[in-house]
Amino acid sequence: MLAYIMNSTGVTVCAIIPFSSWAAFMGGLMEKANMLQGYSVSSAYLHTIPYMLYGWLAVICVPLFILKGLPLYGPMKQAELCALHTGEVFSPEAKAQLGELPNEELKFKDKKCRAIN
Questions:
Q1: What is the DSSP letter of 87?
Q2: Which of 19, 27, 69, 111 is the most core-located residue (most Cβ within 10 A)?
Q3: Maximum Cα–Cα distance across the chain
């Protein structure tokens, strides 16, 4: 769930905010492709923001998923239910692919979970 939240809001928020590195990059690409049609780079980018549908949907849906205004579905729902009922955050398939814990994490294996760990 945390990976979904970070992935769905990180880049999308940067794309919607006009004073980000993403805006400078995309504005530069628009200029190089000769898409400005008389606008400045920043003005042309500002005109594209309303059409960034995925970004707007993600910014609206992520808080609704977090606040349970929208129900989870599919694999995310299964993973969330598993984490809530069993406390396990990895599926058996993911555990098999994960392998052994790195040495630096083994020293915390049997300790109680705390923020300092």
A1: -
A2: 27
A3: 64
| CA–CA distances in Å: residue 51 to residues 6, 23, 26, 69, 86 | 22, 14, 14, 25, 42
The residue length of the chain stands at 117
Judged against a pLDDT cut of 70, whether residue 18 lies above it is answered with yes
For residue 53, what are the CA distances in angstroms to 13, 48, 61, 114? 12, 10, 12, 40
Euclidean distance between CA atoms 56 and 2, whole angstroms? 19
Give the closest residue to 113 by CA, choosing from 89, 79, 82: 89
For the chain, which residues make up each domain, given as ranges? 1-71, 72-117
Q: What is the pLDDT of residues 56-68, one digit of tens each?
A: 999 999 999 889 8
